[in-house]
């Protein structure tokens, strides 16, 4: 229930920020996950432990899906599930940068109902509850109204700009940009700092869930790379890429993709 879950998420994510910032990113103990799944630090695990304890104590009937918790099938039997990325942008965290984020969402029957994305070192708190709009630090935000590539700045990594990705055989003439955290990219799109974002690689639900609601509540559109609506708490918690932006530029991107 979004009206009651959002305050819980806000309190929890602020606690997470205090835990994460108690570590010095560059000196935090770090190791690589098996199978080339990327780095993890002691801070990631400490934040995960805190959030799991706090959130499930408050909502013991909810399921749990987190990047830093071994997944199973138990969550599939719950109507509501917390979807958590304790630190999105771990590489940035270890480099001492300030563009990493905490992301927490609640999914109910596959649909996100409450969400927060928090960047403690930048003092940015994005929030949304289903049907109640999107906010940054308590102020309403809205997605871009841009409708042409020539005017657009789009968050995209190099693979998404390859000529083979686009129907015309060439990348459209948008201005590219990049931020390491997917959750932060979605927040930036929701506040119209950027017009759109896209990633064509399989995307973990915990990277996308919170930002997806924030974009949608900001009046934007978010789908997978084939234009299908996103559904969460899937048996395989990966999405088929993500395209998000103001409604008009999202339509343009989808029309141009091969």
Summarize the structure.
This protein has 2 domains: 2-140, 2-Layer Sandwich (Fructose-1,6-Bisphosphatase, Chain A, domain 1); 149-256, D-Maltodextrin-Binding Protein, domain 2 (3-Layer(aba) Sandwich).
CATH superfamily of the largest domain: Fructose-1,6-Bisphosphatase, subunit A, domain 1
Contiguous runs where pLDDT drops below 50 for at least 5 residues: none
Overall 3D form: globular
CATH architecture of the largest domain: 2-Layer Sandwich
How do the SSEs run, as a string of H and E? HEEHEEHEEEEEEEHEEHEEEH
Which CATH class of the largest domain applies here? Alpha Beta
Q: Number of DSSP strands? A: 16
| CA(first)-CA(last) distance | 39 Å
In round numbers, the mean pLDDT is 93
Biggest sheet descriptor: 7 strands, mixed
Helix fraction bin: 25-40%
Fill in the CATH topology of the largest domain: Fructose-1,6-Bisphosphatase, Chain A, domain 1
Strand order of the largest sheet: 3-4-5-6-7-8-9
Number of separate domains: 2
Secondary structure tally, helices: 6
Protein architecture, described:
The chain has 258 residues and is of the alpha+beta class. It has two domains: 2-140, Fructose-1,6-Bisphosphatase, Chain A, domain 1, CATH 3.30.540; 149-256, D-Maltodextrin-Binding Protein, domain 2 (3-Layer(aba) Sandwich). It is 28% helix and 28% strand. The chain is built from six helices and 16 strands. The protein has helices at residues 2-20, 42-58, 90-94, 182-190, 205-217, 247-256; strands at 30-32, 39-41, 63-66, 80-88, 101-108, 111-119, 124-129, 134-136, 139-140, 153-156, 175-177, 196-199, 203-204, 220-223, 238-239, 242-246. It has a seven-stranded mixed beta sheet with strand order 3-4-5-6-7-8-9, with helices on both faces. A five-stranded mixed beta sheet has the order 11-10-12-16-14, sandwiched between helices. Strands 1-2 form a two-stranded antiparallel sheet. Strand 5 and strand 6 (111-119) form a beta hairpin. Helix 1 runs antiparallel to helix 2 (42-58).
């Amino acid at each position: 229930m979004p009206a009651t879950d959002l305050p819980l998420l806000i309190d929890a994510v602020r606690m997470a920020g205090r835990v994460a910032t108690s570590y010095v990113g560059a000196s935090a103990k770090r190791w690589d996950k098996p199978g080339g799944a990327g780095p993890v630090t002691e801070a990631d695990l400490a934040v995960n432990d805190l959030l799991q304890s706090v959130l499930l104590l408050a909502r013991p009937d909810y399921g749990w899906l987190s990047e830093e918790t071994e997944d199973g099938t138990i969550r599939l039997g719950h109507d509501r599930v917390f979807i958590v990325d304790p630190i999105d942008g771990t590489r940035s965290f270890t480099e001492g940068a300030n563009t990493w984020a905490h992301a927490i969402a609640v999914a109910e029957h596959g649909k996100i109902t409450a969400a927060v994305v928090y960047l403690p070192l930048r003092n940015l708190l994005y929030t949304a509850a289903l049907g109640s709009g999107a906010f940054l630090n308590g102020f309403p935000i809205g997605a871009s109204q841009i409708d042409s590539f020539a005017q657009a700045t789009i968050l995209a990594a190099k693979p998404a700009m390859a000529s083979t990705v686009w129907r015309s055989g060439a990348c459209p003439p948008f201005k590219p940009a990049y931020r390491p955290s997917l959750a932060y990219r979605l927040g930036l799109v929701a506040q119209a700092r950027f017009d759109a974002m896209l990633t064509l690689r399989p995307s973990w639900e915990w990277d996308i869930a919170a930002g997806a609601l924030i974009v949608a509540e900001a009046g934007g559109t978010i789908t997978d790379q084939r234009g299908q609506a996103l559904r969460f708490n899937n048996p395989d918690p990966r999405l088929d890429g993500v395209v998000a932006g103001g409604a008009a530029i999202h339509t343009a991107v989808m029309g141009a993709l091969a």
